């Protein structure tokens, strides 16, 4: 069988195809900002879904704030092991950043059981108790996103921002609306769509930009 | 904030909403088979994308063959750590099955470097060298799917089947067409869409049915 085998070639060709189709069928990207375009490109690449041209919402100042925090070193908190797995750990380590997913830890199960809450909620409570700047990344659990919004109702300089793109039919769209209308710097996707793959793609696009600037 | 916190309730409500929308907007599921419906329901649940009603292709006999093999104990091979992470390991262990992802192993990097091939391709070559029944699961890498199709051009009773749903713009649709028109028992998705989340959702739907029958 004859097929292209080089992953870098495949990725570059994919981006050319995506840019071409965005131009031809959607009148171009909805932004002139190169980093925002890179985020959209990676989200479409991981989902093959051009709906994100309409759905994705990047709050003003989120990218600059997050890039600066990455330069200083932050901790990424993910809601699922899937989102955790999709994030480029090599670049993350190179930038001196950390990543943590609490969901499968025994201490989280114990905390959830004692408090009578879900492990997703226990995860973000545990995360918030730790010191240092944090970027929360949610691809799956609206309950985790809701709980995080409750925790950070009062401003906290350790909260760098939230990438909140839970997918689903119950609570997902609502949780993202609350995030989008809050004062918290965020990236989110209107409606039901999203997912761990989308969450990881957004993080990677920002990490690659950080690596390009400061790496 | 007021929101539904119980994950089981969220899942059950989501399935009710999905079934309702499938009936109202798409004239029902394209199959009467309950397991096929369960697979479609979970794929829509993980993607919020009803295109899979049209896209998903389940080859005749795949489900029975895979359920029987799960009962006897098989090994699932995933192309990415994301797909690996999304598969329910508790049910998998309960059924006496194994799961393996070779992509990040040092031996795979060494093999790929020496042979001048990608790690995705080296992964499936290494997997095929091991004994025992195998179910391949691809959500990301068309090169891994193409290579697996090459490896199994001759019939091999250790190949139970392939869940091949790589997402993407270069090679993904083509690799899935080759899979779909092969004699290998398979589940695939026509076109560009798919992903690690979709792959994991399909595996989980089948695992839950196996657990229901034999657990």
From TrEMBL, chains A, B:
<keyword id="KW-0413">Isomerase</keyword>
<comment type="pathway">
    <text>Cofactor biosynthesis; adenosylcobalamin biosynthesis.</text>
</comment>
<dbReference type="GO" id="GO:0016993">
    <property type="term" value="F:precorrin-8X methylmutase activity"/>
</dbReference>
<feature type="domain" description="Cobalamin biosynthesis precorrin-8X methylmutase CobH/CbiC">
    <location>
        <begin position="10"/>
        <end position="208"/>
    </location>
</feature>
<comment type="similarity">
    <text>Belongs to the CobH/CbiC family.</text>
</comment>
<keyword id="KW-0169">Cobalamin biosynthesis</keyword>
<dbReference type="GO" id="GO:0009236">
    <property type="term" value="P:cobalamin biosynthetic process"/>
</dbReference>
<dbReference type="Pfam" id="PF02570">
    <property type="entry name" value="CbiC"/>
</dbReference>
<dbReference type="InterPro" id="IPR003722">
    <property type="entry name" value="Cbl_synth_CobH/CbiC"/>
</dbReference>
<dbReference type="InterPro" id="IPR036588">
    <property type="entry name" value="CobH/CbiC_sf"/>
</dbReference>
<protein>
    <submittedName>
        <fullName>Cobalt-precorrin-8 methylmutase</fullName>
        <ecNumber>5.4.99.60</ecNumber>
    </submittedName>
</protein>
<dbReference type="GO" id="GO:0043778">
    <property type="term" value="F:cobalt-precorrin-8 methylmutase activity"/>
</dbReference>
């Amino acid at each position: 069988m004859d097929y292209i085998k080089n992953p870098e070639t495949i990725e570059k060709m994919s981006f050319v195809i995506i840019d071409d189709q965005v131009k031809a069928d959607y009148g171009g990207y909805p932004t002139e900002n190169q980093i925002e375009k890179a985020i959209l490109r990676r989200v479409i690449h991981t989902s093959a879904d051009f709906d994100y041209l309409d759905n994705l919402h990047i709050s003003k100042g989120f990218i600059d704030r997050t890039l600066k925090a990455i330069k200083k070193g932050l901790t990424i908190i993910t809601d699922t092991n899937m989102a955790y797995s999709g994030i480029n750990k090599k670049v993350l380590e190179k930038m001196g950043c950390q990543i943590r997913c609490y969901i499968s830890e025994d201490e989280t199960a114990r905390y959830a059981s004692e408090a009578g809450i879900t492990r997703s909620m226990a995860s973000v409570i545990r995360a918030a108790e730790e010191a240092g700047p944090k970027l929360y990344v949610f691809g799956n659990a609206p309950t985790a996103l809701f709980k995080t919004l409750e925790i950070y109702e009062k401003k906290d300089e350790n909260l760098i921002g939230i990438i909140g793109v839970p997918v689903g039919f119950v609570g997902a769209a609502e949780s993202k609306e609350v995030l989008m209308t809050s004062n918290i710097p965020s990236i989110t996707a209107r409606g039901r769509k999203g997912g761990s793959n989308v969450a990881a793609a957004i993080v990677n696009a920002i990490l690659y930009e950080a690596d390009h600037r400061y790496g």
